[in-house]
Amino acid sequence: MTQPAARDVDPALLEVLVCPLTKGPLSYNAEAQELISYEAALAFPIHGGIPIMLQSEARPLEERERAKPKAKGSSEG
Predict the structure, then answer these.
(1) Are 27 and 16 in contact (CB under 8 A)?
(2) The domain spanning residue 39 has which CATH number?
(3) CA 46 to CA 70: how far, in whole Å?
(4) Number of domains into which the chain is organized
(5) Is there a contact between 45 and 59 (Cβ–Cβ < 8 Å)?
(6) What's residue 10's pLDDT?
(7) Which residue in 22, 43, 60, 63 is deepest, having the highest Cβ count within 10 Å?
(8) pLDDT tens, residue by residue, 26-53
(9) How far is residue 45's CA from residue 59's CA, in Å, rounded to a whole number?
């Protein structure tokens, strides 16, 4: 069994974490190492595989980032 890299976040942890402000879901951005709360329009940083879930550490989402991406394979109508 391989150990996760320092940048990796435990998938089980991602399943239980919610936004500390809205209690809504978070999206994981592995490239930016952030957890995104579209409801709060905040991105919470991940340092060394540990999510920092403090509002004071979060960065506000830019206007272009605020639209939640559509899930792959989803269909409308």
Answers:
(1) no
(2) 2.20.25.10
(3) 23
(4) 1
(5) yes
(6) 87
(7) 43
(8) 999 999 999 999 999 999 999 999 999 9
(9) 8
Phi, psi of 59 (to 5 degrees): -105, 140
In a domain, 70, yes or no: no
* Residue at 17 is within a domain: yes
Q: How confident is the model at residue 8 (pLDDT cuts 50, 70, 90)?
A: confident
- Which amino acid is present at 29? N
Per-residue pLDDT at 29: 95
Contacts 24+ apart (CB under 8 A), 9-15: 9/46, 9/49, 9/51, 10/49, 13/51
In a domain, 1, yes or no: no
d(CA 58, CA 35): 9
